[in-house]
Amino acid sequence: MKLKELCSDEQPREKMLEKGASALTNAELLAILLRTGDGKLNAVEICRDLLKRASESLCQLSDWSVDRLQEINGIGPAKALTVAATFELARRWFSEKSHLSESTITNPLAACRLLHPHLRSLSHEESWIIYLNRNNAVEGLEQLTSGTLTATTFDTRGIVRRAIEKHACSVILSHNHPSGDPRPGQADIECTQRIREALRAFEINLLDHIVISDGCFFSFADEKIYPID
């Protein structure tokens, strides 16, 4: 059934104009992005199938590549790019909002809120760093590396160089564990210690190393893995 064959109450665009975006289902909101169906299914039906394949999870769907989106019947390159671009804008909005609301990092949870949009729902490991001034206000946030399903690497010299360039007084390291278990391994602990010592040589403090998994995180500082500066 095509969208125009639905009654006005069931057409996503008309429903949104009349009742507001909050009245629409996830499938209906996605259908507005797709605009049209494929001749066999309307946009809402395509999006219901899309969400079903993503286990009804927008978080899971947001991590899908353009190629994977095109595996769904009725979604070609243009529609896949529209969906992917929308999720990327949402990530950037959330990051910007978090950046403004948590401009000063006072605890691991505040740092996690800033990092979570970048590291959640990834199928591979990435490492990130937060640069802070002497008042623990955020001066910068950037990705350091992108690794494999089970590992990523930290470039100690690169971290020290960038921290100096940013005039950072302290930094917070972070990476994710796609496995869902945020507990650090021995390699994580040893690597963090090396970076801590290298930063100290330039009077830059390592405040924390946060390991993020979906729905949880591990803070080196909170768990007192070793004395954090």
Overview features:
5 strands, 229 residues, alpha+beta, 45% helix
Describe the structure.
The chain is α+β, with helices and mostly antiparallel strands and 229 residues long. The mean pLDDT is 86. The protein contains 10 helices and 5 strands, in the order αααααααββαβαββα. Strands 2-1-3-4-5 form a 5-stranded mixed β-sheet, with helices on both faces.
Residue-averaged pLDDT: 86
Q: Which term fits the overall shape?
A: elongated
- What kind of sheet is the major sheet? 5 strands, mixed
Order of helices and strands: HHHHHHHEEHEHEEH
The total count of helices amounts to 10
Rg over CA atoms: 21 Å
Low-confidence stretches: none
Alpha-beta content class? alpha+beta
Distance N to C terminus: 63 Å
Helical content (DSSP H or I, runs of 4+): 40-55%
Give a quick precis of the structure.
Helices cover 45% and strands 16% of the residues. The protein is built from ten helices and five strands. The model has no long low-confidence stretch (mean pLDDT 86).
Write the layout of secondary structure elements.
Layout: H1 12-19, H2 26-34, H3 43-53, H4 58-62, H5 66-69, H6 77-101, H7 108-119, E1 126-132, E2 138-146, H8 156-165, E3 170-176, H9 186-200, E4 205-213, E5 216-219, H10 220-223
Parallel strand pairs: 3-4
Antiparallel strand pairs: 1-2, 1-3, 4-5
Helix pairs in contact: 2-3, 6-7, 8-9
